[in-house]
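Job type: complex structure
Entries:
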Amino acid sequence: MTNKSDLSEQSAPAGTGVSGSTPLLSVRDLKVHFPLKRGFIVQREVARVRAVDGVSFDIMPGETLGLVGESGSGKTTSAKAVIQLTKPESGSVKFEGQELVGLGTKAMRPVRRKMGMVFQDPYGSLNPRMRAGDIVGEPLKVHGLADSKEDYRKQVASLMSTVGLSPAMAERYPNEFSGGQRQRLGVARAIAARPSLLILDESVSALDVSIQAQILNLLQDLQEQYNLAYLFIAHDLSVVRHISHRVAVMYLGKIVETADSKDLYERPLHPYTRALLSAIPTPNPIIERSRERIVLRGDLPSPLDLPSGCGFSTRCPIATDRCSESSPELRTLAPNQQAACFLAEGVS
Amino acid sequence: MTTDSPINSSPLLQVRDLRTSFNTSEGKIAAVNGVSFDVHHGETLGLVGESGCGKSVSALSIMRLVPNPPGVIESGEILFEGVDLLKISDKEMQSVRGAGIGMIFQEPMSSLNPVLTIGRQITEPLGVHLGLKGSAAENRAAELLELVGIADSKRRLGDHPHQLSGGQRQRVMIAIALSCEPKLLIADEATTALDVTIQAQILELMKNLTAQLGTALMIITHNLGIIARYADRLNVMYAGKIRESGNAEQVYLRPSHPYTVGLLNSVPRLDRPATERLDPIEGDIPDPANLPSGCAFTPRCRWATAECELSEPVLEQVEDRQMVACFESKAVSDSVGIALQ
């Protein structure tokens, strides 16, 4: 991958108060392909979905990287490949200096202790037959982090109050909790084993706005308190801006732009980022009515039939012939800002 | 709540003291609990609130599509062009649906019949309401598909819903909803399930088409940004009641109900500094079977006084066209006014 050196340049996040200069997580040229097979007895690969196709990023300790993109862009698959729930085709995932690609299930277990995960659906991701306290405490048992029953109970109680739930609720079952409270349980479970990285996959998307704000504040408090790093996956760009230090925008399995959050939102360089930003309405009627919107043509191309050249060229308002002939690589266009577009200079 | 429309003085739709409840194992739940509002010819009204606030049930009540049982429209009036929809026969209601009021739902996949072609589904209302049959209906259907931006429309009529993308399905839903040129189009979270760039396409399409046809639009959503962009007026609902209503500028720039203020402070906004900490509403949405006494927002409200637990405030005019149901509305809007400067 040619842009490897660029990526190491960019890995010093500016003005984020992040400690240390070695990345906690370092992903290089990650590829996850799903073969599509046909045939009854002898299965032949007839096509291949490049769900993640050469993704590289770093996350520093205590930093939040926002991963945004529309459905099918490869955000969730990237996260799953990071935590080795999906085996990558190729590439490297280094966590605290250790290579994870190729590690067996057993060798992954101590690593998973340091990577928590919070899912989107607070209804589907908690076992309905387990008491809240046991859901939160399960990682403590799995990783042997409690010395005694008493210690276990104490740790569960403290975890519950950390996420704003009363320890007395430990005896209840998930169906007795509201959506927001369930998501708090999910967060408590994710931080139980003292991870250094949390993967938050659309963790606030399903919540009502007043509850979503509570969880976002909780996540920010926890980050400050425990120096947690977040890989924050979401499709809502205003939420991502709020919580992220750096942002990577994905389209059809590739990162098309990455920058410090402030720069990306103030000066988006990739036409796709610009279109995404312009598609979000702000709750201010005066701004909204005077704002021009870039409305993209058409739908996302089928992952089985990707356009030649730049994947975005079929919907891009400024595409030229060159864009459908060859595929642009990520280029450093400003300090800490990279975009994969031949025409990015003309965009701003 | 009788405000004059700039276009036509008699409202297209008048909802008066609508009450819709559901009988559940936990008792009777008042999903819509005394809601009154108007929709004027050609205007766009937003209905905003969180899950369970009664915004969708209000729309279903207008269409008389509340599942019964368990749902019952207890009382109220729904005057559409002066006719009370709650008093007419099922057959008469049938002709209001589609021809008078069109509706688009959130899930385009489950709203379309998977085994029928797109063409069949668009021509059906054309036959029922306009008497168009055969090639006349087919030509009109192709025109409609063209109108909602589906290319190669003649051939597309033979497609089944699964052959279309999510955005295209929602375009077909819009084509069906507008096929008989209704006077009112209700879009219930019509773009919530779509990706942001597709959401933008569909909303712009809906706004342009309704403006072109002079159709009034009622947008139901939890997304405050969408309402700000598209609605002329809005109603903010909480626990089955309208808590605040007014012109978009009034409600967004000088919100006077604590719930509206809380909603606006809960969303991260691109027009505010990213470092600003969110100021969420505390606590949870109340259990509809067990609403607090007095004003239902009291347990989560920063301005609540002893009076709020005892009696329920009614909607009162605070400004020209702006109505608020809160005893402390003056203090609320004053404090927000200061915060905005």
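Summary: The first strand of chain B starts at residue 13 and ends at 24. The interface with chain A takes residues 50-51, 165, 167-168, 195-201, 204, 222-229, 248-249, 252-253, 262-271, 274, 277-282, 284-285 of chain B (CB under 8 Å).
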